[in-house]
């Protein structure tokens, strides 16, 4: 399994370690009082840094988007009766906040495997050229889209998985209970299972290290977007209109970034126009 290690050796792998050490230094030195964290093992430092980044992305994107659609542009995008209560959003924040440390174990694990040379990750785009970078990134995204679709679908179809894991997220089953904060309100294991195709892809596709890290955290912003009930109508994007249908029917629109997997496997349902009517 040590694909990169065999090809390049320890000096090459040290570049990945140095990169994550740099990330840790930037984030933890800014938020942690003192330098107690410097004595922690490197993976623990990386996990703490990922937690800080995860919480910041969740709260900044969630509060900004809620401010725009529920206060600044109140009723401009969604009907009055579709605005969730403050109590509903508070409960979503509690669920997501409790799960966040567990979610952040996944990028920490992927970094550890990359640093050990167990994956097909590479450090610099110049190593394969920009054209191959784009091709491999497309393959990565297709693999992730396929994996998340089937993971999500099986979390519905396998009854114990739904009952004990995914049902936690599906208590938000109406437009007036969905909000940007619902995007990460999962049972911790559910959230990890749905994101794990990002890690499996590292063993299949030549993946640029920084791009992988960015895409993992883009998940937090994306899930904020698809739970706001605003349908942007950008084909073939799996926007909030499609995902709102998923929350109300439970049997459609399992996809993540696009509608293609649902179209291919017969689970696509087109949304009605849920934008506010004049």
Please, what is the average pLDDT?
Answer: 90
Global shape? globular
What is the spatial order of strands in the main beta sheet? 1-2
Alpha carbon gap, first and last residue? 59 Å
Low-confidence sequence ranges: 273-278
Whole-number count of domains:
1
Percentage beta strand: under 5%
How would you spell out the order of helices and strands? HHHHHEHHHHEHHH
Helix content: 55-70%
Rounded to an integer, what's the Rg over CA atoms? 20 Å
Largest sheet: 2 strands, parallel
Secondary-structure class: mainly alpha
Number of alpha- plus pi-helical segments: 12
Q: Tell how many strands the DSSP assignment holds.
A: 2
Q: Can you tell me about this structure?
A:
By secondary structure, this protein is an all-alpha fold. The protein has one domain. It is built from 12 helices and 2 strands. It has helices spanning 3-8, 10-31, 42-72, 86-103, 105-115, 130-157, 159-164, 188-195, 197-200, 209-226, 240-249, 260-265, and strands at residues 121-122, 207-208. Strands 1-2 form a two-stranded parallel ribbon. Helix 3 (42-72) runs parallel beside helix 10 (209-226). The longest helix has 31 residues, at 42-72. It starts with a helix and ends in a 13-residue tail after the last helix. Residues 138-267 form the Fatty acid hydroxylase domain. Keywords: Endoplasmic reticulum, Lyase, Membrane, NADP, Transmembrane, Transmembrane helix. This is aldehyde oxygenase (deformylating).
Blueprint of the fold:
Blueprint: H1 3-8, H2 10-31, H3 42-72, H4 86-103, H5 105-115, E1 121-122, H6 130-157, H7 159-164, H8 188-195, H9 197-200, E2 207-208, H10 209-226, H11 240-249, H12 260-265
Parallel strand pairs: 1-2
Helix pairs in contact: 2-3, 3-4, 3-5, 3-10, 4-8, 6-8
